[in-house]
Amino acid sequence: MPNTVLVTQPLPDQYLARLAEHAELDVLDAGESLSDPALGTRRSACYGVVCTLTDTIDRALLKDMNMLKFVSSVSVGVDHIDVSALSVRGIALGNTPGVLADATADTAFALLLSAARRIAEGDRYIRDGKWTASNRWSPGFFLGKDVSGSTLGIVGLGPVGQAMARRAAGFGMTVASWTPSGRKVPGVCSLSLEALLATSDFVSVHVALADTTRNLINGARIATMKPGAVLINTARGGIVDESAVAAALDDGRLFAAGLDVFEEEPVPADSLLLKHPRVVVVPHIGSATASTRLKMADRAVVNAVAALRGEPMPYCVNPEVYAAL
Ligand code: GLV
């Protein structure tokens, strides 16, 4: 009897077919979730899990998953998974790097332009019937912020941060960065986080969520940002303090914010952020293009098939699990 792989969200048929050559598949139905108590033996019987960022895999969940040998997440971020809990049990974790930087940077730059030039706000204004003959055009109508000639501060210079830097250079921005790894990239000036926040007209967040980056952009740091700056976050919600962003928008410290990710997703309807006209929001769609999602599915399947064959995953987050092999 082949090993069972639990797939938490349906992948395109060709990817399921590739997996099915190596394992028995148990694909969850819409409405079922990995953490459902009702999943019982289906969860404890699985040898591998192919999941997404909406599946929390923590110690409690892992308790009854005694057969589990690998997890392959269709995501680059793995903050939904307790990596050390997997590693101590020798369970390999795969992710999907190298295929979503451009799509995510496009989303970040779209949010930047929309926040700077009040595009979403203008769209709502017209649809709400507020654009009338009496306010058709005036020199002070719907003024935004210049993008060209301004400074973009990038927090986190990994592949998405670097893709953002390339876009910003094309728009005539000066690009600065602070990155926990200390990485340097030609054309991007390295600054301390303090200097970056104090001097950037736009700040875009591109670090992974980890213990060291949780609440990195907190109230105290937002208070040091250049007055009238714009904050963009396409990384993870927990990195930015949302109530501090709302307060900084209210007191004018921030001109606007563009957010793809939230502390809680979906963002609660009563979030203060949603009440603010200068906040542009999209529902965690950073990598959501058809071709990027196919590439992510491909990486996830390549990882899972390697694990099913007893080989190391090519995109492995905790390669230390192979040290003993
Ligand atoms: C998306 O947010 C990802 O981590 O892939």
UniProtKB/TrEMBL annotation:
The keyword Oxidoreductase applies. The keyword Secreted does not apply. This is D-glycerate dehydrogenase. Keywords: NAD, Oxidoreductase. It comes from the Bacteria. It comes from Candidatus Marimicrobium litorale. Residues 5-318 form the D-isomer specific 2-hydroxyacid dehydrogenase catalytic domain. Belongs to the D-isomer specific 2-hydroxyacid dehydrogenase family. Residues 109-286 form the D-isomer specific 2-hydroxyacid dehydrogenase NAD-binding domain. It holds the Pfam family 2-Hacid_dh.
